Amino acid sequence: MKQRPLPENLSEKENLSEKSSEKKQSRHLPWAGPLIWLKERIQERPLLALLHRALVDFQEDRASRLAAALAYYTAFSLAPLLLIVVGVAGMAFGRDVALGFLLDEIQRLVGREGAELIRTILQEGNQEQRSLISAVVGAVTLLIGATGVFNHLHEALNVIWEVPQEQRRKGLLGAVVTRLWSFGMVLSVGFLLMVSLVLSAALAALDEFVRGLAPSLQVLLQGANLAGSFVLVCLLFAALYKILPDIDVAWRDVWVGAVFTGVLFSIGKFGIGLYLGNSSISSAYGAAGSFVVLLVWIYYSAQIFFFGAELTQAYANRQRHKTREGGARPGLKPSSPPSHSPMGWTAAGPSDASGIRLDL
């Protein structure tokens, strides 16, 4: 069970009593002193307190299991998802151009074998249907499969935000609405891929133009390409954090989590690529090695995404404590007295929400 922020009516007498208790216990426990010192240092740094709160929630929500489930769903949704994404992006540039661009990006992330696996999956999934019935069945299967990933993301974000059951979409209508939102997100990914294609094509043409005039400008163009990719990633994360959960998340909270997650994702994809490039996963699994590598990359990327969601939730709670007295905003985790464990970390309360208290 998650430890909650301290209630606002915690008296000064209780605070003094806790400090006195910490000092007394620190005399008997040799390791208590360094932990109390660490607690005080974290209290002085709101960013560290926020990251710690997000990490604790990440562990208590078992977000690593949510990431593993997402990798499993992705294994079955990959072909229909990419078929729709490539189809949307190919409306402007043609399917072959969109597919080539997508495979180049995948190769940078998971290597040549992973890109070839994606190419094979797309070729098998793009076979023409021989009859009307098979075409209809294929279209329905394509729709359900493509939205499976976002449907799981919807449920996972509800878990992270602890959305009450009565507030979640239920019944047949709720399932249909969720699938429609998920399909909308699939189309949005295709649109972002199309925008990325436009930017890359424009920058490539500009690069050819300035290469003979001012070679030094090529560095600026490469920086602009990276910045454009980063902005698109942040836009995608912001849309997922805002739209998928069954609560009303403020945009100011969403952007903080989206930008931070974008930074982590940009750093993490190089780290994951470095790890996969120097590991023996592919050779250990033989013919299935490239598929396992792809799942490992999705698994670690999903953990980054869910940590960003936990950070968004922690930041939203902290801002709520600063601006409101009592009463939880719908969908946000309410304040309640902390559970006193032998060594439990809890937030220091609305008046100093950036702090951390250590119960020894």
Automatic annotation (TrEMBL):
It is a multi-pass membrane protein. One of its GO terms (cellular component) is plasma membrane. Keywords: Cell membrane, Membrane, Transmembrane, Transmembrane helix. InterPro entries: Virul_fac_BrkB (IPR017039). Residues 10-24 have a biased composition (Basic and acidic residues). The chain crosses the membrane at residues 70-93, 132-151, 172-199, 219-241, 253-276, 282-300. This is YihY/virulence factor BrkB family protein.
